[in-house]
Amino acid sequence: MSNNSYKAVMDRKNQIVQDSLKVNYEDFKISDVAFDYERMMEETGYTIDEMIEIQSKLGVGNTPIVELKNISALSRKYAPKGKGARIFVKDEAANASGSFKDRRAAVSCYHAKKLGYTGVVTATSGNYGAAVASHAAKLGLKCIVVQECFDSKGVGQPEIVEKARKCEALGAEVVQLTVGPELFYKFLQIVEDTGYFNASLYTPFGIAGVETLGYEIVKQFDKEVGKQPDVVVATNAGGGNLTGTARGMRKAGNTTTKVVAASVDLTGLHMASDTDFNRKSFTTGHTGFGVPFTTGPDRSDVPRSAARPLRYMDRYVTMSQGEVFYITEMLANLEGLEKGPAGNTSLAAAFAIAQEMDEDQIILVQETEYTGAGKTVQPQLSFARENGIDIHFGNPRDEKPGVTIVLPDSPKAIEIKDVDLNRLKRSAVKNATKGIERELTAEEFDYLAEEINDSVEKVKSLLEELKN
Q: Per residue in 178-213, pLDDT tens?
């Protein structure tokens, strides 16, 4: 019998992952610094057209683009003369289980079935679990979802409880855990014990599945609008959303649209803290995931994450919790669209960024998600009050995560806060070269330049900064 202690399982993590994916990540290794990212992505073995066909048969994709004319008009009210871009959303809530993560799950589950696996396992806060459960059911696969649900008192956030309910409703067995480092440990243990396919969020199959989203955006805007978006805003957590969309747009021939990441600012709240767990109102799409996964993507449950958002990011902005709650109500009241919280993070950012842009320009909110009893504004705010959070109207810039939620007293108060991309790039280079004492090779410099979406000269400059 295998030793199932935490240390033993984590020590054989790479072998467990390889066995559960039939992917040997060592094949892509160039050095201790670099690996062949594009070759790893090619190993999925599916073209864009093949993934579109797979997803179409499973009720995924071809989701509509919707112009938010009323919200665009309101944004223009606060913009300088001649400013105020047209705001669109890509309604990913129209997918089978209600989010863009259906695209990841459809390809992963299809591949698991193709390889002969009888079941799939995933670790997730919820939306992806529901997507995997949905497509596993369609393909006759068993499904186990490992979910971090509760604090040590057994109290779970309304949004997480709602997501667990949906996973179970779609036929999954849900293993519910308290907050802490055991999530990936338990996930790996179950993968090893069952012999099921590893439907991780961060495999090449999962990220490649999102490429169809970006591909559709380009084709739909050509056909329905006659021009491409000037800016696409993607909510950023683990980075797969932004990575897949940007790659898909490039494969469709669009290399000019600027890609902006948006996260909820939860600065000061520790994501693995039992005390902080229920003091945040957002379970994903926040800086607690967005920043560390941007600067160190390989912190996930696979040796090399296929989600590498810094490669494709032109700008990174944050919004407050109060602003996202406010924009969620705005979307429902002005456009008649009730959507879940994650996509509304990027909508809040788009509302402000649109005011910087010309009237004839287009900004696209790259996704929406389904809503449900625990994901709407009122249960979230009620839960926050129960946990001692002061909620009031005022200036969102005064919000203190874990202490207050400040709802804007006017749409004019909705503002973006830029994240310093140079700081993120420096952290990414530092993480990638940790423990390396020698001079880097030309190939490693090229790799790092691609990792930070910049030049070799920039990499060298950052390394000099890190020495000093």
A: 887 788 899 999 999 999 999 999 999 999 999 999
Strands 86-90 and 65-67: antiparallel
Q: How far is CA 33 from the centre of its chain?
A: 25
pTM of the model: 0.96
Give CA–CA dist 75/78, Å, rounded. 6
pLDDT of residue 229: 98
Encode 150-208 in three state secondary structure: ECCCCCECHHHHHHHHHHHHCCCEEEEEECCCHHHHHHHHHHHHHCCEECCCCCHHHHH
Residue count of the chain, please give it.
468
CB atoms under 10 Å from CB of 404, counted, come to 18
Closest alpha carbon to 201 in 236, 166, 168, 238: 238
Q: For residues 352 and 204, what is the distance between their CA atoms, to the nearest angstrom?
A: 33
Q: How far apart are CA 200 and CA 120, in angstroms?
A: 9
Which candidate, 134, 132, 154, 144, places its Cα nearest to that of 189?
144
Cβ atoms 89, 116 nearer than 8 A: no
Residue 119: in which H helix or E strand, if any? Answer: strand 119-123
> Which residues, other chains included, contact 169 with Cβ-Cβ below 8 Å and sequence gap of 6+?
none
The Cα–Cα gap between 153 and 449 comes to 46
**The residue to which tokens 């683990």 are assigned:** 238
Rounded Cα–Cα distance for residues 43 and 307 (Å): 15
- 230-253 burial string, b = 16+ CB within 10 Å, else e? bbbbbbbbbbbbbbbbbbbbbebe
Integer Cα distance of 425 and 452 in angstroms: 6
Identify the bridge partners of residue 118 per DSSP, sorted by sequence position.
Answer: none
User: What percentage of the chain has pLDDT greater than the value 70?
Assistant: 100
81-99 pLDDT, tens digit each? 999 999 999 999 999 999 9
Chain center to CA of 311: 15
What rounded mean pLDDT belongs to the chain? 95
Token pair belonging to 63: 């989701």
DSSP state of 122: E
Structure tokens at 401: 């995560």
Query: What is the reported pLDDT for 462?
Result: 98
Q: From 361, 259, 302, 274, select the one nearest 25 (Cα to Cα).
A: 302
